[in-house]
């Protein structure tokens, strides 16, 4: 198999999704408390700005690669990756609303389960894209 930028991107994103879901399920309420007290503390954490910059750079780099590399279907992962800018925007410009959304999701077992299943399914899609498309 010939690995390229898009293959690595798919596998890295899938790994991140799977690892965070395993931690979320494994740690249960401890994860919820950590996420709300540290990751998304009441005062907007400074790490959000760094992640936002990295996220925007990654989206721009990915679109650059779409147009400069001849990789069939590369626009698919670039489009999906671009959707992460919605979360980045929420973190930067509507932090309190995002924090409320996160708390509601983490404290509602059905919503948390839907989130976990959705992320795991997307991770499977990324693995399949990495194996069969790129």
How would you describe this protein?
This protein is an all-alpha fold and 134 residues long. The chain has one domain. The chain is built from 7 helices and no strands. The protein has helices at residues 5-27, 29-39, 47-68, 74-82, 84-93, 95-106, 109-133. The chain is globular, with a radius of gyration of 16 Å. The chain starts with a helix and ends with a helix.
List keywords for this structure.
134 residues, mainly alpha, 7 helices
Summarize the structure.
This protein is mostly helical. The chain is built from 7 helices and no strands. The model has no long low-confidence stretch (mean pLDDT 96).
The portion of residues assigned to helices is over 70%
Give the tally of β-strands.
0
Task: Report on the biggest sheet.
Answer: none
Average pLDDT level: 96
SSE pattern? HHHHHHH
Identify low-pLDDT runs.
none
Anisotropy-based shape: globular
- How many helices? The count is 7
User: How many separate domains make up the residues?
Assistant: 1
Overall structural class, as computed from helix and strand content, comes to: mainly alpha
**What is the distance, rounded to the nearest whole angstrom, between the alpha carbons of the first and last residues?**
9 Å
Radius of gyration: 16 Å
Beta content:
under 5%
